[in-house]
Backbone:
């Protein structure tokens, strides 16, 4: 009897182990197999603004108090077969050539826009209506400022992010201001696809949304596979500068410090796994060295 009981318990444990392995495998399957992943055809960088902040210590707590810093704002356009996917929509076009700029938190940072998104798309023969999908890294205003231009596109956003901006209050007045602005800029997309965790956008491993919460509850990054350039990770705001990324430095406006660090560490692991290049959205020194539309990565 005792032996039969032990066998039964052993069988249950084995079954549970296999079930858990199956769960892990299913979760992992959302990430591409590096050797078999499909490829997107082209990746274009768009100039989606620049900004000047008057206190770098907001992004480097305890250091650089009162020091001025410049950031880039970058959007990316991906061609996949007959479809176009836009990663973020940048600073609102109403800021174009306005010397006063535009701001999400006027006392801290001001954004300027030298080129409109519409004009840059036009330079390669596209209209906003040609964009079939818009993937949102997160809902801060400098990333979703032109959502209204793409009302026919399917909007890909993490469920945690969408819930956060519609749930109420954040941890500070500044964060509450960002949330209120996000609701206004995002509006009510008529084609909304809420994502829960990682997601293979086209089903072939060429473009993968990577869950990287911390900057906001539903922040995400993007893993793109190209035939000649290999894998490229687009940061969202998992980090603002290369130095912050290397040091796991968490800005004071991030909603969760532990998640922020875990997300940076996850991206470091993915860089190693996929031998990927890492393009940091707001790192102006790096961004200035990258190809700009009409040039592209393939």
Residues:
């Amino acid at each position: 009897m005792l032996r039969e009981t032990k066998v039964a318990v052993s069988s249950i444990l084995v079954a549970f182990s296999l079930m858990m392995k199956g769960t892990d495998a299913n979760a992992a399957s959302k990430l591409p197999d590096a050797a078999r992943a499909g490829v997107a055809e082209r990746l274009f960088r768009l100039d989606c603004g620049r900004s000047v902040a008057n206190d770098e210590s907001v992004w480097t707590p305890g250091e650089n108090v009162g020091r001025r810093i410049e950031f880039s704002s970058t959007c990316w356009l991906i061609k996949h077969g007959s479809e176009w996917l836009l990663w973020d929509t940048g600073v609102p076009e109403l800021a174009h050539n306005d010397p006063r700029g535009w701001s999400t938190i006027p006392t801290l940072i001001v954004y300027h826009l030298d080129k409109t998104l519409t004009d840059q798309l036009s330079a390669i023969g596209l209209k906003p209506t040609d964009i079939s999908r818009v993937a949102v890294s997160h809902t801060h205003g400098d990333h979703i400022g032109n959502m209204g231009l793409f009302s026919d596109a399917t909007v890909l956003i993490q469920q945690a992010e969408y819930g956060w901006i519609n749930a109420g209050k954040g941890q500070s007045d500044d964060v509450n201001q960002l949330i209120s602005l996000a609701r206004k800029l995002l509006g009510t997309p008529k084609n909304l696809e809420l994502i829960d965790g990682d997601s293979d956008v086209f089903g072939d491993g060429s473009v993968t949304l990577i869950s990287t919460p911390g900057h906001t509850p539903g922040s995400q990054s993007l893993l793109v596979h190209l035939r000649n350039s290999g894998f490229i990770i687009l940061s969202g705001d998992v980090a603002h500068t290369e130095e912050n990324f290397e040091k796991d430095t968490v800005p004071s406006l991030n909603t969760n410090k532990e998640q922020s660090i875990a997300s940076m560490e996850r991206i470091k692991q993915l860089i190693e796994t996929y031998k990927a290049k890492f393009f940091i959205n707001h790192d102006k020194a790096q961004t200035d060295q990258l190809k700009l539309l009409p040039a592209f990565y393939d």
The two ends are 66 Å apart (CA to CA). The longest strand covers residues 42-53.
